[in-house]
């Protein structure tokens, strides 16, 4: 029904919806998801197996096993330096293409200023993609409540 209308949809929306529907058809629902509780002194490496076990105990499919990946989010309080973490299941890595366009425009200006030839090697293209991935994973300041010092910090 989502794609039955005459409204325009892009290929990304289609493939994500298609894969989610296949996953739902193949998935075996085993019960309710229970949040993984961990102690403050446990590391992400110690908690990750518990997290994966809880996810697989809830709903799993062969498709999910091949396409999903887990991101580790780490939060550090700017007041007391307390560190917390969480895991996030993802099926796609959404890169900031505006960042990529801005980077390409900067590179183009630099080439025009300092070079007689407009040459872009394969290595430069790879480094551009790497910069886009680095942009996705860069440290960000967010507002979050710290359970240790009871402060709302960035």
Automatic annotation (TrEMBL):
<protein>
    <submittedName>
        <fullName>Ubiquitin carboxyl-terminal hydrolase family protein</fullName>
    </submittedName>
</protein>
<dbReference type="GO" id="GO:0004843">
    <property type="term" value="F:cysteine-type deubiquitinase activity"/>
</dbReference>
<dbReference type="GO" id="GO:0016579">
    <property type="term" value="P:protein deubiquitination"/>
</dbReference>
<feature type="domain" description="USP">
    <location>
        <begin position="1"/>
        <end position="154"/>
    </location>
</feature>
<keyword id="KW-0378">Hydrolase</keyword>
<dbReference type="Pfam" id="PF00443">
    <property type="entry name" value="UCH"/>
</dbReference>
<dbReference type="InterPro" id="IPR038765">
    <property type="entry name" value="Papain-like_cys_pep_sf"/>
</dbReference>
<dbReference type="InterPro" id="IPR028889">
    <property type="entry name" value="USP"/>
</dbReference>
<dbReference type="InterPro" id="IPR001394">
    <property type="entry name" value="Peptidase_C19_UCH"/>
</dbReference>
């Amino acid at each position: 029904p989502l794609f039955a209308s005459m409204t325009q949809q892009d290929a990304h929306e289609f493939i994500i919806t298609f894969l989610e529907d296949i996953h739902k058809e193949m998935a075996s629902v085993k019960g309710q998801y229970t949040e993984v509780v961990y102690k403050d002194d446990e590391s992400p490496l110690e908690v990750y197996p518990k997290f994966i076990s809880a996810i697989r105990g809830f709903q799993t499919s062969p498709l999910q096993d091949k396409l999903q990946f887990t991101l580790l989010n780490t939060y550090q309080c700017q007041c007391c330096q307390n560190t917390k973490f969480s895991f996030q299941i993802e099926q796609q890595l959404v890169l900031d293409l505006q960042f990529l366009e801005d980077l390409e425009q900067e590179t183009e200006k630099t080439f025009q200023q300092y070079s007689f030839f407009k040459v872009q090697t394969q290595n430069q293209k790879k480094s551009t993609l790497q910069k886009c991935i680095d942009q996705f994973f860069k440290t960000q300041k967010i507002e979050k409540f710290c359970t240790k010092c009871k402060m709302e910090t960035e």
